[in-house]
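Final report, closing paragraph on structural work. Over the funding period we assembled a curated collection of sequence-structure pairs, and we close with a single example.
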Amino acid sequence: MSKALLVTGGAGFIGSNFVHYWLGQYPQDKVVVLDALTYAGNRANLAAVESHPGFSFVHGDICDQALVESLLRERQLDTIVHFAAESHVDRSITGPGAFIQTNVVGTYSLLEAARAVWLAQDIEHRFHHVSTDEVYGSLSPDAPGFHEEQKYEPNSPYSASKAASDHLVRSYLHTFGLQVTTSNCSNNYGPWHFPEKLIPLCLTNILRGLPLPVYGDGKNIRDWLHVEDHCRGIELVLNGGRIGETYNIGGNNEWTNIDILHLLCERMDALLAQRSDSLSRFPASPAVNGGKSSDLIEYVTDRAGHDRRYAIDASRIMAELGYEPHHSFESGLEATLHWYLDNEDWWRPLLVQ
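Its predicted structure, as stored:
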C-alpha cells in the first residue's frame, strides 16, 4: 500500500537523505517536504528529486499549525516523518531559545495538527519522531550502550529540548491515541552534511588548509552511523514497528574524536595524492604541498557540558525488525570523502570564509 508522507526538515542533512532514499525505494509514494530553510536547510540537497512526480516542496515553519493542517487535509497525507530540529550543541549553548521554539513548540504544533486532522476524521496514520541518543546523557567508558528504557539525563539545551519533544510525542499516544513511533539515533555522517559538524567541518578544513579543532583531549567517544543506514532503520520502523515503541538506531561503531580525525587525515592525504587536479583545486591543503593533514590538528578548550561517551544498543530494532548497518565505518567514510571531493560546488558556498 502506498504512503503519502510529510517530511519535516526534509531539506536538512538527514531529512534530505531520507527523501532520496524513500523515493528510491518507493517511487509510487507521495513525499511533501516542509522546511523553513534556516541556515542548515538547503534546497540544493533535494535537486536530484525535484523532478520526481511524487515530490513537492513547501517553504514553511513547523510551528505554523494551520499550514500543517492544510497540508495534511488538502494533500491527503497519512504519515509524518519529523526530522525538523535545531541540532548543533554549540549553538544551543550560545542561543538556547531557538532550540526550545523549534524542537519543543514545533513538535507540539505538529502533534496538534495531526490530532486535529487524523483523529477527527479517523484516518489511518503514523507520526514518526526522529530523536537522538543525546537525550540519555553520557556513558562511562565501560558501560553498555544506551537502551530504550534508559533514564533520560540530557546535559545541553539541545538534548534537553529533544528529550522534551520525545515526551510530548509519547503523551499524544497515551492521552489522545495518536499512532506514534520514535527512533533515537547515534551520530550520522554522509552526503549533504552541513559543514559545522565534526566530519564535514574537518574534511573541508583539510581542503582549505585550516585548523582541525579538537575539543579537550579529543577522547570523547561517539557511535557513528552512516545516514543511509539510519534511513533504512526508519524505513523498518515505519513499515513494521510497533505503535508507541521507541527504537534505538546505531552503527555499532564507536570512535574517539581524535581517532576519527587521524583516520580522516590519513584517507584525505591518500585521496588527494591520487587526484591529478588536487593542487589546482585545493592549493592550501598540506597534502598537496608535501605535508600531512594531521599537522592541522589543533586542541581547543572543551565546550561546556560536553558528554564523554555515547553508544547505542540497537538490539531491539535488530531483533524485531531485522535491522543491520550495511556500511562499515571505513567504507562509509571513504564514500563520504569521495562525495565531498566530487561536490565542491555544493559545500563551498556554505562555508564561513
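The domain at 4-189+224-253+308-327 is CATH 3.40.50.720 (Rossmann fold). The chain has a mean pLDDT of 95. We thank the funder for supporting this effort.
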